[in-house]
Amino acid sequence: MSRTLIRGGLVITAAEEVHADVLIEGEQIVALAATGSAVAQGWTAETVIDATGQYVIPGGIDAHTHMELPFGGTSASDTFETGSRAAAWGGTTTIVDFAVQSVGESLRSGLDAWHAKAEGNCAVDYAFHMIMSDVTENSLKEMDLLVDEGVTSFKLFMAYPGVFYSDDGKILRAMQRGADNGGLVMMHAENGIAIDVLVEQALAAGKTDPRYHGEVRRELLEAEATHRAIKLAEVAGSPLYVVHVSAASAVAELAAARDRGLNVFGETCPQYMFLSTDNLAEPDFEGSKYVCSTPLRPKEHQAELWKGLRTNDLQVVSTDHCPFCFSGQKELGRGDFSKIPNGLPGVENRMDLLHQGVVEGRISRRRWIEIACATPARMFGLYPRKGTIAPGADADIVIYDPEAEQTISAATHHMNVDYSAYEGMQVRGKSRTVLSRGTVIIDDDRYLGRAGHGRYQTRETCQYLI
Question: For residue 104, how many other CB atoms are within 10 A of its CB?
Answer without folding.
Answer: 9
